[in-house]
Design brief:
The protein is an alpha/beta fold. Helix content is 34%, strand content 13%. It has helices spanning 35-45, 59-71, 94-105, 150-164, 179-188, 207-215, 237-246, 250-259, 272-276, 286-298; strands at 4-5, 10-12, 18-20, 24-25, 49-51, 81-86, 112-115, 172-175, 195-199, 219-223, 264-265, 280-281. Strands 4-5-6-7-8-9-10-11 form an 8-stranded parallel beta sheet, with helices on one face. The protein has a two-stranded antiparallel sheet with strand order 1-12. A two-stranded antiparallel sheet has the order 2-3. The longest helix has 15 residues, at 150-164. The radius of gyration is 19 Å and the shape is globular. The chain starts with a strand and ends in a 22-residue tail after the last helix. Bound molecules: 1,4-dihydronicotinamide adenine dinucleotide and the ligand O=C1O[C@H](CO)[C@@H](O)[C@@H]1O. Residues 22-294 form the NADP-dependent oxidoreductase domain.
Amino acid sequence: MSFEKATEVRLKLNTGADFPALGLGTANRADPPKTKEAVIAAVEAGYRHIDTAWRYGSEGYIGEALKDLFARGVVTREELFITTKVWPTHWDIPKQSFEESLRRLGVDYVDLLLQHWPLAFKKVYEENGDLVQLPVDENGEYLFDENGHYLQGYKNIEDLYLEDKGKRIRAIGVSNYAIPYLEELLKVARVVPAVDQIELHPHLPQKDIVNYAESKGILITAYSPLGANGAPNLKIPLVQEAVKKYNVTPNEVLISYHIRQGRSVIPRSINTERIRNSIRLVPLTEEELEAFDNFGKENPARHIRDKWGANIPGFEYWTG
Ligand SMILES: NC(=O)C1=CN([C@@H]2O[C@H](COP(=O)(O)OP(=O)(O)OC[C@H]3O[C@@H](n4cnc5c(N)ncnc54)[C@H](O)[C@@H]3O)[C@@H](O)[C@H]2O)C=CC1
Ligand SMILES: O=C1O[C@H](CO)[C@@H](O)[C@@H]1O
């Protein structure tokens, strides 16, 4: 059986820009330097989309990889799609966050800038002057900025984008927004987010959010498609059945589940062999896609259960 390449599928953002459906996730927080080799392997294998954030500590290593790839003529900046994000510590200073990301990445624009979480953290500083990513009090409770609000955080990114006129920030979007927050946002937004990046996989199909976002022209990017650390989704029986039927890797089944439904997906790996073996688009049938969604309704599991999200609609039953 011959397969289309997932790396060649392009979606369209509401800005009109092409959006490569398959991206490389880079939340390599345990070993950020490994990101350089992973990005080089991914781009050489045909990936054209890289997902990062200040939170991951990987932007500088992506910058090193890009320098190498550009110098060798493997790819040009214009052929790549780079997403980075504004962490809740920077909710009122997205320009600073964006400029620092650009510097670390060594590029002069990003294709997509996302509000990482609909939250605002208090500013607490490390001895070296850097902002503490996860500020907590003496009892370990997260410190939220009482003057901050998720809608204001988006508005600040929107202001930056409108001021920039789309030159250095080609599109903006959100992450970790479920329907109630999307509804509130759309009442006031001057720029409809191009993307909502959410956890999505056969254990968590979240069809309600997907359908709502898509009805508003917001594309979905699926994060943690393999189930995050340890990749537990690889063991789902339906995934294993598809692996045997199509003679593909479980990674390819899990990414194809999204791309076949018009969504973008950003699996993470630092294993260059696995990166290269994750690019075929498996022609999962309508029945198979429906079976995956039904499996999720009966076996829901959220793998990213960050406690700071406890008060965000959609996350409250899952944190802890
Ligand atoms: N916007 C947000 O709040 C979030 C965004 N993300 C983004 O999404 C990306 C993907 O999500 P992740 O949570 O990183 O998890 P993921 O679902 O992509 O899984 C990554 C894990 O699977 C392992 N893995 C990959 N292939 C494997 C294989 N064949 N066998 C065994 N293990 C395998 C990797 O080593 C890694 O530990 C992130 O890297 C990041 O870019 C992730 C979490 C939250
Ligand atoms: O983007 C993110 O990645 C981590 C988990 O890997 C999560 O805390 C954050 O939202």
